[in-house]
Amino acid sequence: MTSSMKKYFRPLVIISIVLIYLIIIAGAVVRMTGSGMGCPDWPKCFGYYIPPTEEAQIKWQPNREYQKGAIVIINEELRIAPKNFISKEDYNSENWNSYTKHDYAKFNVWHTWIEYINRLVTVLSGIPILLMFIVSFSYWKTNKQIPVFALITIIAMGFQAWLGKVVVDSNLLPFRITIHMVMAFVILAILLYILYQTKVQVSLKKISRTFKAILIFSVVLTLIQVTLGTQVRQYVDEQIKILGESAKSQWLNPPTLMFYIHRSFSVVIVLVNVWLYLQNRKLQLELTKFHWVLLCIALEAFTGILMYYFDFPFLSQPLHLVLASLLFGVQFFILLEVFKQKSAMIPS
What we know:
- The chain is mainly α.
- It is about 60% helix and about 5% strand.
- The chain contains 8 helices and 5 strands.
- The strands form 2 sheets. Strands 2-3-5 form a 3-stranded antiparallel sheet, with no helix packed on it. A two-stranded antiparallel ribbon has the order 1-4.
- The longest helix has about 35 residues, at about 210-245.
- The relative contact order is 0.12.
């Protein structure tokens, strides 16, 4: 691997980070629209690599060639073909096996394609990450951490794909959805670490242990807040199933204890990050990204207010999660600047 390949590395890392954010956005849209089971199987969708566009495609049909793994809906149940065959004039149950991983058997073309696009974005994100891993070996002599963490990213993406399968097979079990989302944050953190390793690093003033400790605390608070938010979201999902899409004013009426904890945590997050911002200015630490931290917090609070007081306006839910992921990304990068400020510079 020649040193000239290094010029492609940072762009590949940045593209990978952007695609991870797109995955988070797509996942948030899937959650907002209730499309998580739009494709009831994995990695295919109703047994196809390109999903159906109308319900007739997944209804049993006579004199049709079915491939192994094809799925149809019979009597509101999923049936899967155990082998290749051509159907006769009458339905023969011996040609089909019951789909036993879950009992969800509905088709909605919008839900199916929203979930399919979510999966497609995930697959596409693997391309720059794989290329990043290959190019990372150009740094082997100068910084072995870069190819090692590039490999960890590949492994993490594989684990995330497996988690996606587990989530679908469990019919969107809440705990597994939360793990799936947190894993996206972990991958984002790894990529940011790799990006920082290739950055021309500027010396900062000596930073106190107290400031560093509070900074770590602020990142942990963000992760806890995101996790609490997923629990609130799960309650909202359950309310939607009971009350319907049109009863938005009733989704959080009355609010749950988890909602109040989630809202109270936001106050703590604001206070902690304002303190960090003011200390940064007072001590002239030149951590300029704190402006973005406060902006993300303000916008996230705004979308939270919209959801609660204005009955979940369109796109307010995915925006709320995306802003949380942006906040985490900026905070984590500041964390790297503070704790890795004495690292050696990486040759270009």
